[in-house]
């Protein structure tokens, strides 16, 4: 891994992580970026380097997701309690259902293939 803390890099976000962060790859290194959404092209700054991945801070969204919205909460950026409020609500519900599918596939409890998974219920 040839990255340094404070280094600024462009990144294409490929998917969302379990904590709502955007995930991309830079020179085959996994990069987690809170605030980034799947499908976005961003510019970010490395904040932490771990053994198998790096964490980065979102600096600029060059190509926005069509599902990006302005968070309804005025303290969204400071609080950190609602990690995906910048994602359209319908897509938040889909994201949560997908997390369940991923967890079942990863941990594979007996008979999980036959579970009836219903869509996440919203407000």
Automatic annotation (TrEMBL):
GO terms for biological process: rRNA base methylation. The keyword Nucleotide-binding does not apply. It holds the Pfam family TRAM. InterPro entries: NA-bd_OB-fold, SAM-dependent_MTases_sf, TRAM_dom, U5_MeTrfase_fam. Residues 2-60 form the TRAM domain. One of its GO terms (molecular function) is rRNA (uridine-C5-)-methyltransferase activity. SUPFAM superfamilies: Nucleic acid-binding proteins, S-adenosyl-L-methionine-dependent methyltransferases. This is TRAM domain protein. It comes from Streptococcus mitis. The lineage of its organism: Bacteria, Bacillati, Bacillota, Bacilli, Lactobacillales.
